[in-house]
Structure formats: structure tokens, C-alpha cells
Amino acid sequence: MKEVIEKIKKGEVQPQDIASLPDEDKYLILGALAIKNKQYQKAIDFLEKVRHRDMARRLLGYAWFARGRFFEANAWLESVKKKTPSDYMLLAFSNLILGDEKKAQQYLRTALALDKPKAINMLRSFIMNAKESKKVNAIKKLLAMLER
Q: Could you give the CA distance from residue 46 to residue 96 in angstroms, rounded to a whole number?
């Protein structure tokens, strides 16, 4: 699987490379590629088949988040065993939108403690991509939490 991932990074992957993988790895790779290509429903369909894997749960959280379905994103991301700073930032943002400021604050603090530059970059990314007033208000709240 590592060879296929390296080929994907270089842009040299061929369909037969992915086809040669075991089914579980194949669904994981196809789900990740679908997210990369902004085909979120297709990604969800692939990843649901291997949802018992931690990486699949993380990617399902990302896909649901990208679709604006924060309750589902939250559920999948909370089920990830080894969370990354990115996971914590997405959890903070989705909890804010869902109205749980206390949880959002905890997740924000954890993300900042683990990797402050990455957390701040993700916040910048949220700001650049926010179009709905609900998201903009959530970002303002996250910024206010940062100032405390």
C-alpha cells in the first residue's frame, strides 16, 4: 500500500496499482482520492465499507464536514482513536456550529496545545472558505476563544 500512496503523491498512480490492493486498502485509497477530487458522496460510499478502520472514520468525518453535515462529521471524528490537531480543529468548528461552545473550547485548546501553527492555519482556511453566516459566526466565536 505504501508504494501506491507514493505513486499517488507523485501523480503516477495507475488503475491496476489500486486494483492489486486488498479490498480494505482499495476502498480506503478510493475514498481518499474521491475526497481529494471533491466527490464527497462517492468517498462516503467507499469509506462506509471499511468504517471499522480508524483512518476511514477520520476520512468519513472530513467528507461529512465538507458536505456541511456537522452532526455526522462530529460523530465520525469523535470515534477516531488517535486524533490529530486537524481532527480537533474540525471538532471545535462543528461543535460550535452545533451549539456546544464548551466542547468546542476544549477541542480548540487541545488543537492549539498539539500544534499551534497548524491550528491557526486551519482557522485561516475556515475564514477563507466561509460563505454562510452560520459558519462566519462560528469562526468569530473561535477567534474570540483564541483571544481569551
A: 28
65 shares a domain with 87: no
Report pLDDT for 19. 87
The residue segments making up the domain with residue 106 are: 83-148
Consecutive 10-residue averages of pLDDT for the chain (148 residues)? 78 82 90 91 94 94 92 95 93 91 92 91 79 71 73
Is residue 122 situated within a structural domain? yes
In the chain the first and final C-alpha atoms are separated, in Å, by: 44
